[in-house]
Amino acid sequence: MSMFPETLVTAAGRLLLPEPGTVTTLGPGLRARAAAVLLRMALDQALDAYWQRVTPSMTRIGKHRMLCLEWYVGHDTARRCRTTWTALSAACHYRRYELPPAPTEIHTRLLEVTSLLAALRAGQGTTSVTSTGDA
Length: 135
Hints:
Layout: H1 5-16, H2 28-54, H3 62-67, H4 69-73, H5 75-92, H6 103-122
Helix pairs in contact: 1-2, 1-6, 2-5, 2-6, 5-6
């Protein structure tokens, strides 16, 4: 089952800030962790869509697509992707002796994922890699 990244971000936002009058059976920490999972999925799907447009073979390579991103979208966007993906990964994992992620932290990540989706969709840096040894 594949959903659009924007749909996942919207669902994460609803988990973090339920509509008034909505009965929630999950605590804020559990909702924040579930939102982190949705946000990481959205970022993964946006990266897949980006690489599908730029270099389709890159969608088959998990970790390398994040490492190579800097050459295509620039240092800042690549750094933001790595930082956000790593933070969301940490928030997704349950650890017995750690508190769940704070909803405000995940909400900050939601805003960052929204910004990254726009940057990746705009195709910033879709030029090919240039050799630095040709100077």
